[in-house]
Amino acid sequence: MIEFLQIGFIMFLALSGGVVVGTSFVALLVIFDLIPRLAQLTNSYHLSIWFETALISGALYFTLTDFLNIQLHLPLPPLIGFIGLLNGMFVGMLAAALTEVMNVLPIIAKRLSLSRAMVALVMAMVIGKTVGSFFDWLVFQW
Prior knowledge:
Layout: H1 2-31, H2 34-41, H3 48-68, H4 77-101, H5 104-111, H6 118-140
Helix pairs in contact: 2-4
């Protein structure tokens, strides 16, 4: 009986955690209007349904692959690199849209008196993200 209660409690916690993460993700997308902003930044309003479909499909696919422990073996390393490039572009565009919607850069530039160095600030963030990603891929992943 105690084991049954423990399993039930763990299932409740897992379901609750999933609901919280899913709700937070949807709230982030809806409150900050990230999909319409991405469509505006890329000047592709007519493709916004594809942004939404890709986002939902990716979330469902990777949830299932993680939950079911499915591994995808791609035969060509350049294909893996291309998929990684597309993934990085999407994450970068999503982060840029979020940053722009929240007006983070103008606030930082104003508070730190860096208005004249805005290009350098953006480049420092881009280079830092790139170097950090390479460090993670080449050091921690191997």
